[in-house]
Write a structure and sequence with these properties.
The complex is a heterodimer.
Chain A: H1 2-6, H2 9-16, E1 29-35, E2 40-49, E3 52-61, H3 64-77, H4 82-96, H5 104-107, H6 123-138
Antiparallel strand pairs in A: 1-2, 2-3
Helix pairs in contact in A: 2-3, 3-6, 4-6
Chain B: E1 5-6, E2 9-10, H1 11-15, E3 24-25, E4 28-29, E5 31-32, H2 43-56, H3 66-86, E6 94-96, H4 100-115, E7 121-125, H5 134-143, E8 146-150, H6 163-166, E9 171-177, H7 189-198, E10 202-206, H8 210-213, H9 218-221, E11 225-229, E12 240-244, H10 246-250, E13 262-265, E14 270-272, H11 286-302, H12 304-324, E15 327-330, E16 341-346, H13 351-360, E17 363-364, E18 366-368, H14 373-378, E19 384-388, H15 395-412
Parallel strand pairs in B: 5-17, 7-8, 7-9, 9-10, 10-11
Antiparallel strand pairs in B: 1-2, 3-4, 6-12, 11-12, 13-14, 15-16, 16-19, 18-19
Helix pairs in contact in B: 2-11, 3-11, 4-5, 11-12, 12-15, 13-15
Classes of the chains: A alpha+beta, B alpha/beta.
Chain lengths: 151, 413
C-alpha cells in the first residue's frame, strides 16, 4: 500500500527517536531554514576539522519526513569529508527528483525516504535539512564560515 | 439518510450540482474539506462562465457592437448582483477586483498612502490573514504610520479588553477579518465599526471567509470598506471585489493606471474616471465576474440564512466528533460564534503527515500555517490541520474524516 512506502518503520523510528538532535555549542557552521508551506524548520550545526565533518547535529520542528530526513542526514555525513557530504546531498536530491537510484551502501537509512517521491508536495519536507546542510557547507570554504547565515 | 437536510439545505440535491464531487481518490469517494482554501463550483457557475465565452464574449465598456453591449451588460449586471448581495446602496460602490488580496492592497495603497502619515496608527488583529497584514506593512513603511494589533484570547477570540488603549485618536483605520480562516472566529464587526468611528477612524473588513458563509449587510454593519473573494463562494478564481462607501472610494487613488480607467490622457498628465471605474484598469476578468454573479444567484437561491444554518450545524457536529476523538481544536468551540474552518492538531501527528494519510482515505484537508503565521505563533504551533466545510458537505463526510484519523493514529502510535 502506498502509505507504507512513505511511513516506513525506519522513518518513524528516526522521527520518534531522532539522532543527534541537539544544539552544538561552538559549532563553526550553523544554518537555519524553514519551509514556508508548512512551517517546518531545521537548524543544522556542524563542527569541521581538517576538511571533515567531525560532528553534525540539528534542531527543529516539523513533520515526520522533514525531521527523520534531518536525523538520518546527521548520521550519514558525520565523519565524512565536506566533498563527500556535498556529493551525498546531490545524490539525495537526485533520488528525490526520481533521477538517481540510491546506492544502499552510501545512502544507508536514507533509502527509506525514496517513497516520498510519490508525494510531490512532501519532497520539500525531505529536502529541507539537506538545503540547510548545503548552505552551511557553502560557508565552510571560508575560514570563519561567514557565508553561513546564523540564526 | 439524515444528511439530506441540514440547516434548511437539501445537501444531496446541492451535491448533484457539483460535478467534481463525483471524483474518486483511488478507491475512495472524494471528501473535500478544504473549501476555506477554495470552494468548488456548481454547474450553474461553470455554465455561466462558459456561456459567456461561447455566446457573448467581447471586451466590456469598449465595443460598439452587439457582443460588446452584451458583455458590458453581463459585467455591469454582475456589479448590481454583488451590491444586492452585500446590502450595498448602489452598484457604483462595488469595485471589481481579482479577490480580497487585491481589494486589501487597493485599500492599503489607494487609501492608506494618501491618508496616512507619521504618527498615524493602523489597527489590525493577530488573527489576520497575511493579505491583511503585508499590504499594511508596505503602507506603514511608505508613510511612517505605525501598525498595532488587537491580541487574541486563549479561546481564539479578539481580546477587546485593551481596545481602549489600542484604538485612539491616532488610529486612522481598523482593518480586520470578519471570519478567521485559521480559527473560524466570527468577529464583532458592528462593535468594532462603532468603536472605530467613535475615534474618527475608518474600518475595512476582510470578508474572504465571511461572505461565502453568512448574510452580510454593509449598511447595517456600518463598515466603510469590505473586500471579498469570488472563488471561495462558488465563483471562479480571479473574481471578487471591494465595497466602499462612496465618499471613501472617491477619496482613494487608483493603484493601477491604464486603459479604461481614464477620461483623457495628455503628454504630462491624465484625468481619471470616477469610482468604481478608476480602480478597474485594463481588461478585467469579465467572464469570471459574470461567473461570480451566477454563484451569488446560486447562493441566494439557497438562502444565505440557510447556508449559515447548515454551516453551524455541520461545524458543531465536526467539533463534537473531533474533540471526542482526542483532537485539540484551535479557536472557539461554540459553533454559533464561528465559521466552518476548524483548525486542529490530532494527538502528536504533525498536520503534514495527517494530511498525507487522510488523502489516502480520500479526505482532503489543509495542513500548514494557513497564511496566518501570527495565529500559529500565538498558539505555539508551527502548523495546524484544518478541515473546512461548505454547502455540499455532509455529516457522513465528517465521519469519514474522523474515521481516517484512526489510521493516522495506527501509523504513529
Amino acid at each position: 500500500m502506498a502509505l507504507d512506502d512513505i511511513y516506513k518503520e525506519v522513518i518513524l523510528d528516526h522521527y520518534k527517536s531522532p539522532r543527534n538532535k541537539r544544539e552544538l555549542p561552538g559549532a563553526e557552521l550553523q544554518c537555519h531554514a524553514n519551509n514556508p508551506l508548512c512551517g517546518d524548520e531545521i537548524t543544522v550545526f556542524a563542527h569541521v576539522e581538517g576538511g571533515s565533518i567531525a560532528e553534525v547535529t540539528f534542531q527543529g520542528a516539523g513533520c515526520s519526513i522533514s525531521q527523520s530526513s534531518a536525523s538520518m542526514m546527521t548520521e550519514a555525513v558525520t565523519g565524512s569529508s565536506i566533498e563527500d557530504a556535498r556529493s551525498l546531498a546531490t545524490g539525495f536530491r537526485g533520488m528525490m527528483a526520481g533521477e538517481v537510484e540510491p546506492d544502499e551502501e552510501t545512502f544507508g537509512d536514507l533509502v527509506a525516504l525514496k517513497g516520498v517521491v510519490q508525494y510531490p508536495i512532501r519532497i520539500k519536507c525531505a529536502v529541507l535539512a539537506w538545503d540547510v546542510l548545503q548552505d552551511a557547507l557553502d560557508g565552510a570554504g571560508e575560514a570563519s564560515g561567514a557565508q553561513a547565515h546564523t540564526v | 439518510m439524515t444528511d439530506d437536510r441540514m440547516g434548511g439545505l437539501d445537501v444531496e440535491a446541492i451535491r448533484r450540482d457539483f460535478p467534481i464531487l463525483e471524483r474518486r481518490v483511488g478507491e475512495h469517494p472524494l471528501v473535500y474539506l478544504d473549501s476555506a482554501a477554495t470552494s468548488h463550483k456548481p454547474n450553474q457557475v461553470i455554465d455561466a462562465e462558459a456561456d459567456f465565452y461561447r455566446l457573448h464574449n467581447a471586451n466590456a465598456h469598449r465595443g460598439i457592437h452587439m457582443l460588446g453591449e452584451e458583455a458590458t451588460q453581463a459585467y455591469e449586471g454582475g456589479r448590481a448582483t454583488v451590491a444586492r448581495f452585500l446590502g450595498a446602496p448602489e452598484p457604483e460602490t462595488i469595485v471589481f477586483t481579482r479577490g480580497v488580496t487585491e481589494s486589501l492592497n487597493l485599500v492599503a495603497f489607494g487609501w492608506g498612502r494618501t491618508h496616512l502619515r507619521e504618527g498615524d496608527e493602523i489597527l489590525l488583529s493577530d488573527m489576520e490573514h497575511h493579505s491583511n497584514i503585508v499590504p499594511w506593512q508596505m503602507t506603514a513603511a511608505a508613510t511612517g504610520a505605525t501598525l498595532r494589533y488587537i491580541p487574541l484570547t486563549d479561546d481564539g477570540l479578539l481580546d477587546l479588553s485593551q481596545l481602549g488603549s489600542l484604538l485612539t485618536e491616532r488610529t486612522k483605520i481598523v482593518s480586520v477579518t470578519g471570519m478567521s480562516n485559521a480559527l473560524g472566529t466570527i468577529t464583532p464587526l458592528r462593535q468594532l465599526a462603532d468603536a472605530a468611528h467613535a475615534v474618527g477612524a475608518m474600518i475595512a473588513v476582510d470578508a474572504a471567509q465571511l461572505a461565502p458563509h453568512s448574510p452580510i449587510d454593509v449598511v447595517a454593519l456600518d463598515v466603510d470598506l469590505l473586500g471579498f473573494t469570488g472563488h471561495k463562494m462558488l465563483g471562479p478564481t480571479a473574481s471578487g471585489g471591494l465595497y466602499g462607501r462612496r465618499e471613501v472610494l472617491e477619496s482613494m487613488e487608483p493603484m493601477l493606471g491604464g486603459g479604461e480607467m481614464i477620461h483623457e490622457v495628455f503628454h504630462d498628465h491624465s484625468t481619471y474616471k470616477s469610482a468604481p471605474f478608476t480602480f478597474e484598469a485594463g481588461t478585467m476578468p469579465i467572464a469570471q465576474q459574470v461567473g461570480l454573479a451566477a454563484a451569488i444567484d446560486y447562493l441566494e437561491s439557497l438562502g444565505m440564512a440557510n447556508v449559515r444554518a447548515h454551516e453551524e450545524e455541520i461545524t458543531g457536529y465536526a467539533l463534537d466528533r473531533l474533540l471526542d476523538a482526542g483532537a485539540t481544536v484551535f479557536g472557539p468551540k461554540d459553533a454559533s460564534i464561528r465559521g466552518g474552518a476548524v483548525s486542529f492538531w490530532f494527538k502528536d501527528v504533525h498536520p503534514h503527515d495527517l494530511a498525507t494519510i487522510l488523502n489516502e482515505e480520500g479526505v482532503a484537508i489543509r495542513a500548514g500555517h494557513h497564511c496566518a503565521q501570527l495565529v500559529m505563533r500565538r498558539y505555539g504551533v508551527p502548523a495546524t490541520a484544518r478541515a473546512s466545510f461548505y454547502v455540499y458537505n455532509t455529516r457522513a463526510e465528517v465521519d469519514a474524516l474522523v474515521d481516517a484519523l484512526d489510521r493516522a493514529q495506527a501509523i504513529f502510535s
